Amino acid sequence: MKPARTPRKFVAPVNWGALPKGVYYRQALEEELKPWLVKMYGFHLLKIGNLSAEINLESCAISHQVNVSLAGEPAQVRADPLYLPFAEKSVDACLLAHTLPWCPDPHRLLQEVDRVLIDDGWLVMSGFNPISLLGACKAVPFARRSPAVKSRMFTLTRQFDWLALLNFEVLHYSRFRVLPWTKQGGKLLSAHLPALGCMQLIVARKRTIPLTINPLKQSRSRARVPQAVGATRQS
Length: 235
Prior knowledge:
Layout: H1 22-37, E1 44-48, H2 50-53, E2 64-69, E3 77-78, E4 91-97, H3 106-116, E5 117-128, H4 133-136, H5 147-150, H6 156-165, E6 168-176, H7 187-192, E7 199-206, H8 215-221
């Protein structure tokens, strides 16, 4: 397994149109996200990366949505996603739509997201599935020229481990679009062989564990030692 952190520099696509069949990818991701957008609430939502900025989140109850990226349009905040210019616990939700595939340090990015998210904040991540037809194209020399194939691909299990270390609870995960070159993505195959979907989605929430012990609960739970029969207190 290759390390997640790499000195290699990646150039993220400026929009979904820069990827072959990228518009189909975006539409499929928006459709997969719909059931979860209505469950999110709060005041501030960060769309991190150029591809995240183009995802339609109109059905989300969080109205204040900010696009963050180093370059491209429609960026509203010019910043390195590895060093987000926001205070701790100031954001209610973060969207990383295919942001990890072009990130040189995914661990650092997730740590920054964890820092700015409030307790019980939402994290939505998507990417390409290495165990798919798109992932298999990495072994084909002429297919490696495609930006999607050249991108980094991480398995769901590996991403679950990263989220567990930051105490995120995964509420939903899915894989879809088995056939990456068609508009519908192979609906029949996606229904029966979802594990081979070229796209994957994770919806998680930041959970916190109280580190301070409640004195009242501690005194109640403390076992009382019964006094021995016939024992007297001596001065």
